[in-house]
Amino acid sequence: MPSKPVSAPLPTDVFKPDIFKGKVLFCTGGGSGIGKAITEAVMRHGANAAIVGRKLDRLTETARELSNGTGRTCIAAQADVRQPEQLKAAVAKTIEHFGRIDFVVCGAAGNFLASIDGMSENAFKTVIEIDTLGTFNTIKATLPHIRATHGAYIHISATLHSRGTPYQAHVSAAKAGVDALSAVLAVEEGPKGVRSNVMAPGAIANTEGMSRLANQVPPSPGTLLPYPLGRMGQVQDVASMAVFLLSDAASYITSQVVVVDGGWEQLRTPQ
Ligand code: HXC
Q: Which residues are 196's β-sheet partners?
């Protein structure tokens, strides 16, 4: 009997290395975690990239690492996704460097644990502004370029809001808004050749989100269930789905929410 897989394959183990040759990715939240892993995977398939975030030091370091590691070019474009003018400047810098944008990943997100009762109005608003308004701002700033290349969007959401997840009211409301934005974008822009999908990762190891949340959530029904595939998610699992969704193999897939959680949410759902 074959042994159970214990780690995620790299996307380059599965897809051809040149499928994104000549393409350009614009990734918010690309400085670390899932956004960085998606950017690396897309670059390893031939694309150049711009990574966008608030912290220029980290972005610059990541851009250097990704360029050296992939042989493609990654630039750092500093912007807070809550600020439309900063995003427009990041898009302008990307166009100046590469002349086009084919793919947008909206990955910038905020998170912390707080109950509704214990969260200030400004705390709630902050996460809505980073996740939902930030996604809207990113779409607005990039859409003319994505129309021009008949490109694609991926929005990073979550599975938290499929039910009431304690201490995640702000993130749950924000991600529900992200899912809705993607669906509207898909139907409005589909006739113009633009696709828009959502990826909903489960618990992914070695990410800032998990480091903030892990071991801090009091057990609630279902939270201690094992992973159906026998291991926790890795950033490569999410990156591989991104490569598929951005590729021509997904050319008839739009307006979808693709859960990448190893089946954990299904296990958590009462049958
Ligand atoms: C309660 C908090 C808080 C906390 C901040 N606030 N942290 N409230 N508990 N831990 C409140 C502040 O008091 C303030 O309200 C308001 O939020 C804004 O805080 P600022 O620090 O001024 O804002 P800012 O620096 O713009 O952003 C803060 C932040 C951000 C939203 C916390 O730094 C952040 O989220 N960073 C983490 C990034 C991250 O982990 N991304 C991955 C997300 S993973 P007052 O009232 O005091 O003014 C994800 C999916 C997880 O989303 C799924 C896992 C399964």
A: 153
Q: Tell me, using a 6 A CB cutoff, whether residue 176 lines ligand 1.
A: no
Which amino acid makes up residue 45? Answer: H
Residues 6+ apart with CB under 8 A from 98: 24, 48, 50, 73
Q: What ipTM score was computed for the predicted complex, to two decimals?
A: 0.95
User: Are residues 165 and 159 in contact, defined by beta-carbon separation less than 8 angstroms?
Assistant: no
**For the chain, how many helices (H) and strands (E)?**
9, 7
CA of 150 to the centre of ligand 1 (A): 35
Which of 23, 32, 36, 175 is labelled catalytic? 175
pLDDT digits (tens, 9 = 90+) for 5-50: 567 888 777 888 899 999 999 999 999 999 999 999 999 999 999 9
Burial 93-129 (b: 16+ CB within 10 A, else e): bbbeebeebbbbbbbbbbbbbbeeeebeeeebebbbb
CA atoms within 13 A on the CB side of 72: 25
Q: Determine whether the shortest distance from the Cβ of 117 to ligand 1 is under 6 A.
A: no
Asked about 23 being catalytic, the answer comes back as no
